Amino acid sequence: MKNISQRISLVPASPIRKLVPFAVEAKKQGVTVYHLNIGDPDIKTPDVFIKSLQNWKRNPISYGQSQGDPEFLEGLKNYYHKLGYPFIQIAHIQVTSGGSEAIGLTFFAVCEPGDEVLTFEPLYTNYNSYATIQGISLVPVLTKPDTGFHLPKKIEIEEKINKRTKAILICNPNNPTGTVYTRDEIEMLVKIAQKHGLFLIADEVYRDFVYDGNKHVSLLDYIEKMPNQIIVLDSMSKRYSLCGARLGMLISLNADLMAGILRIAQSRLSAGLIDQAMASHLMEVPSSFFKEVHKEYQNRRDILFEGLSKIPRVTLEKPEGAFYCIVGLPVLNAEDFCKWLLTDYRLHNETVMLAPASGFYSSLGKGKNEVRIAYVLKISSLKKAITILKNGLIKYLHTKNTRLQTRK
Amino acid sequence: MKNISQRISLVPASPIRKLVPFAVEAKKQGVTVYHLNIGDPDIKTPDVFIKSLQNWKRNPISYGQSQGDPEFLEGLKNYYHKLGYPFIQIAHIQVTSGGSEAIGLTFFAVCEPGDEVLTFEPLYTNYNSYATIQGISLVPVLTKPDTGFHLPKKIEIEEKINKRTKAILICNPNNPTGTVYTRDEIEMLVKIAQKHGLFLIADEVYRDFVYDGNKHVSLLDYIEKMPNQIIVLDSMSKRYSLCGARLGMLISLNADLMAGILRIAQSRLSAGLIDQAMASHLMEVPSSFFKEVHKEYQNRRDILFEGLSKIPRVTLEKPEGAFYCIVGLPVLNAEDFCKWLLTDYRLHNETVMLAPASGFYSSLGKGKNEVRIAYVLKISSLKKAITILKNGLIKYLHTKNTRLQTRK
Q1: Distance between CA B348 and CA B391 in Å, rounded?
Q2: How many interchain CB pairs under 8 A, A with B?
Q3: How far away is chain B from the Cα of A98, in angstroms, using its nearest Cα?
Q4: Which among A13, A69, A99, B132 is most buried, taking Cβ atoms within 10 Å?
């Protein structure tokens, strides 16, 4: 009997989701679990989307077009025009089943098996998964807490480039670090990509989540100058609290690339019709929605940073954007701690779920004492989660020490 | 500047969709286009699904679980129990973004790059696309009109099996031929798979569409006997007129395979939440819906077969199931004819769109004078489409002959 493929065994389990069975078990026991493990916002989806479902008339629910539904594509075009990029046309947009599909399509479109994509770690864990699925190598350049996970010097980046390097990939604002790259950093990458003839890919899913009055620097600022090299990945999920509507976008001015991507898109027929019909109302979302959401996240960021900073031997940088941060813990094995919180620890019958950070590194052995925290819960829940984490950590360290001493 | 990948250029354009721009152009000119090119039924989606959208309450629209939403999984389990397979548990089901994702996941899970999957042509075109994307070879065994596209002898199948063969894939009822395999044929495949230790994969998306009182023979009948080898692919699209809700299913009792597939599923986070919440009502669809749909399709099949059989030099076998058939035409290049119908031919300002059949073969050069027809339109439209096809064909042959004579 033939075995399943070797390559499927290489696909890593998601650090965000692999502990889910333990959370499910805890909930079965009546325990409240605060989910800081996943960027699944509790912010309400704008009314205009919900109402478009409630007013649903279309029947049958038939296939959409492979590039995307015309009304949704028109809405997206208007969104990018309003954002300041009036040159973006419908031909430059491919609608994807979530930002995830946009990652997979991009890797496939720019790399042969064995090719390399240079990126910065800690990194969004699913870049790893898609690289494995597509048979390509992610080559990570390490970024560090003491520089707020900002980019290293040009020479440190360039020394990782070789003949097999096809692209540089950034996530900006960054998941999992919360770093927002400066214009100088973006221009450094633009110059490197120009010099070495590389594709330059930006995942800008968190474009709207930049705090303290700073501005996001989009690769769309440079896409007319490098029309064949720049690819921007985007998503409806975070901006509009639409994670469960699987809608992402891939933006490129490279006609050959878009034609190839459309052929792959045809093989999966279309993205969801209902999701797209709903999301085609994106330009009707009032600007007050984004203002409130922005304010809410900045508050959450402040409360998380303040709360965690007070816990002895816990280290973190103040995130500049997105809604994540990498947190160093005084433990040897953060995954064991995350699992223990779900299986063994309760405070007033509540616990917290975190994502172990080792899965956010491409280099083996990195991030073992770190977790990624998503501050996607309302402030009252976030405060409780911080208290649980603090008390849980003390208890865990005590338990582990006792165990160690007992063994002696 | 680096080029896009070679492998993306190998992905074939969909024969079902590549002529779409010409159809769009015709519609812009006010021409009615009857779509016989794609299996996108005009049957109304059952009320219970539409109502669940109209009663939508959930907010925010958050991520679903990677395996599938619990309520939808429960509904699917009940569906398979009612179908006669009470041993199927939720652990045996993976929800996919359309049947398409199930095909891609399966190929990835059972094959290394360069491995072979044996299948029968004409074949569902997207098997070709996914094989190319996954770097595997589809090895086709030819089936022929004079045997109603039924399977060839065991020896003809076995002689295509070698060390790299990992699986046999069938589509039953078949898209694009409309063939429904007999129990003898299915048991022959079961024996071959047992003898050679191969995975045996059945795409049973059209399970409900079997005519003339015949019964569908599902691989689920054999899955307990070969729990590690059989994989069944399924979809909500055709059965419930839900093509635009991207929901498919993969059924396997192989725990290692399901664990690997779940890890890939985690990397794309989840299938659509709204689609799944809607589809979780599947057991509430009244049996009268299926009865009426079945009757309607059998009528359409009869009318199509009768109508096309009367056109001189047009050849087809009476389809036994699904809602497709392969039709031989007296032309040298069916793709040119299909394109010409969209660009140059109108009957009372109407025309018809067909899918050239060459893309439904894996072997180069096959199917050049054939089209695939999907009989998914109501009978009045179908009759008009047949008349257009008949008159269009006469005109096309006349035009071509005139051109040829002019050239002489």
Answers
A1: 11
A2: 258
A3: 8
A4: A99
| Domains present along chain A, CATH in parentheses | 6-44+287-407 (3.90.1150.10), 47-284 (3.40.640.10)
Of all residues in chain A, the one with the smallest CA distance to B196 is: A1
pLDDT, tens digit, 9 for 90 and up, residues B58-95? 999 999 999 999 999 999 999 999 999 999 999 999 99
Tell me the C-alpha distance between A148 and B307, whole Å.
72
Q: Which of A52, A55, A231, A267 is the best residue to mutate to test the B interface, defined by the most B CB atoms within 10 Å of its own CB?
A: A267
Measure A275 CA to nearest chain B CA, in Å: 7
Query: Using the beta-carbon criterion (under 8 Å), do A60 and B113 form an inter-chain contact?
Result: no
How many Å lie between the alpha carbon of B186 and the closest alpha carbon of chain A?
19
Question: How confident is the prediction along chain A (408 residues), in pLDDT tens digits per residue?
Answer: 889 999 998 888 887 878 988 999 999 999 999 999 988 888 999 999 999 999 999 999 999 999 999 999 999 999 999 999 999 999 999 999 999 999 999 999 999 999 999 999 999 999 999 999 999 999 999 999 999 999 999 999 999 999 999 999 999 999 999 999 999 999 999 999 999 999 999 999 999 999 999 999 999 999 999 999 999 999 999 999 999 999 999 999 999 999 999 999 999 999 999 999 999 999 999 999 999 999 999 999 999 999 999 999 999 999 999 999 999 999 999 999 999 999 999 999 999 999 999 999 988 889 999 999 999 999 999 999 999 999 999 999 999 877 766 655
Residue of A110, A242, A269 lying closest to B100 (CB–CB): A269
| Interatomic CA distance for residues A249 and A103, integer angstroms | 10
Interface touch B266/A65, C-beta < 8 Å = no
Q: What is the value of pTM for the model shown?
A: 0.95
Reduce the secondary structure of chain B to three states and give it as a string: CCCCCHHHHHCCCCCCCCCHHHHHHHHHCCCEEEECCCCCCCCCCCHHHHHHHHCCCCCCCCCCCCCCCHHHHHHHHHHHHHHCCCCCCHHHEEEECHHHHHHHHHHHHHCCCCCEEEEEECCCHHHHHHHHHHCCEEEEEECCHHHCCCCCCHHHHHCCCCCCEEEEEEECCCCCCCCCCCHHHHHHHHHHHHHHCCEEEEECCCCCCECCCCCCCCHHHCCCCCCCCEEEEEECCCCCCCCCCCCEEEEECCHHHHHHHHHHHHHCCCCCHHHHHHHCCHHHCCHHHHHHHHHHHHHHHHHHHHHHHCCCCCEECCCCECCEEEEECCCCCHHHHHHHHHHCCCECCEEEECEEHHHHCCCCCCCCCEEEEECCCCHHHHHHHHHHHHHHHHHHHHHHHHHHHHHC
Distance from CA of A313 to the nearest CA of B (A): 32
d(CA B176, CA B354): 12
Yes or no, beta carbons of B1 and A228 under 8 Å apart: yes
Query: Which residue of chain A has the CA closest to B102?
Result: A268
